[in-house]
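4.2 Preliminary Data

To establish feasibility before requesting continued support, the project team ran the inverse folding procedure on a target of 300 residues. The structure was first converted into the token representation described in Section 3, and no sequence information of any kind was made available to the design step. The complete token record follows.
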């Protein structure tokens, strides 16, 4: 093996400086004066040295490659561990399946494949499987949480394959021959939009970030409360009539009023008349609008 050090390089330069390389040409005319030629050659060799200095020797290159390979291996292991720590969840709610034998069959499939069954809609539900799309508590709650809303064929395909099937093949789709404004088409489209929105935003649910107050005397709001909770809203029960200090101390973003039952318009005037208030009045049509169009109630 031939190695080159500083002494070797220096001797090469000196030998070149002493050579007749820059002597007169065949035409007996000097190509360059010896002094200028030697200085140019010396400059060129010096520049050559600085260029090669930027490249590490082979042994160092090999070490760098090994370090990069080790880092890539560690990253792959971390990603694998992450997937193992946070496996995909399968938590099911069912709607429209009223036959007890069919319900038991569905529950058996879910349990056998490693999923969980919820009798009511919650923010833990990841899949709502239904025989019919409608404006129901479970469908709206599923939209709020960004859950998959699927046809019953999903259970058949999963049972046959021995594992949970891919969801897109069993999503409800809008009917081209039906009225676009029909409840079935509207909530089919809503389910698709909300599931995609939540997935694209790292699992952030539709009502996340909102702190919603409601009055104890406000009746018939339990279903709406469930839907809001499915979307990760925080609900706070407050006194009636309005106590602004209580609302402000709880960092309330919205006050929930459904059809104003038991509450008159003038009763919420302390909020609407306060120019410094950041509290919005939340009616049912605002909730429906967020779900139908895939809008977050509170923007980041």
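Position-by-position output of the design step:
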């Amino acid at each position: 093996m031939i190695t080159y050090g500083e002494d070797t390089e220096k001797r090469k330069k000196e030998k070149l400086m002493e050579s007749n390389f820059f002597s007169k040409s065949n035409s007996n005319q000097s190509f360059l004066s010896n002094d200028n030629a030697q200085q140019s050659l010396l400059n060129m060799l010096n520049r050559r040295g600085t260029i090669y200095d930027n490249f590490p020797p082979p042994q160092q290159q090999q070490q760098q490659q090994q370090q990069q390979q080790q880092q890539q291996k560690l990253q792959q292991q971390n990603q694998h561990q992450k997937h193992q720590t946070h496996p995909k969840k399968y938590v099911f709610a069912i709607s429209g399946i009223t036959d007890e034998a069919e319900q038991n069959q569905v529950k058996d499939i879910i349990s056998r494949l490693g999923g969980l069954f919820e009798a009511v809609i919650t923010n833990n539900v990841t899949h709502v499987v239904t025989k019919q799309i409608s404006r129901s508590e479970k469908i709206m709650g599923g939209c709020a949480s960004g859950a998959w809303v699927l046809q019953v064929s999903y259970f058949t395909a999963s049972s046959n394959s021995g594992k949970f099937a891919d969801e897109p093949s069993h999503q409800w789709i809008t009917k081209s021959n039906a009225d676009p404004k029909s409840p079935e088409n509207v909530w089919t489209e809503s389910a698709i939009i909300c599931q995609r929105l939540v997935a694209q935003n790292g699992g952030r649910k539709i009502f996340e970030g909102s702190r919603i107050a409601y009055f104890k005397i406000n009746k018939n709001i339990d279903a709406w409360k469930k839907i809001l909770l499915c979307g990760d809203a925080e609900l706070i029960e407050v006194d009636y009539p309005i106590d602004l200090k209580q609302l402000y101390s709880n960092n309330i973003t919205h006050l929930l009023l459904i059809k104003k039952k038991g509450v008159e318009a003038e009763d919420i005037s302390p909020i609407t008349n306060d120019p410094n208030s950041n509290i919005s009045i939340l009616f049912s049509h605002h909730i429906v609008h967020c779900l139908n169009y895939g809008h977050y109630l509170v923007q980041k």
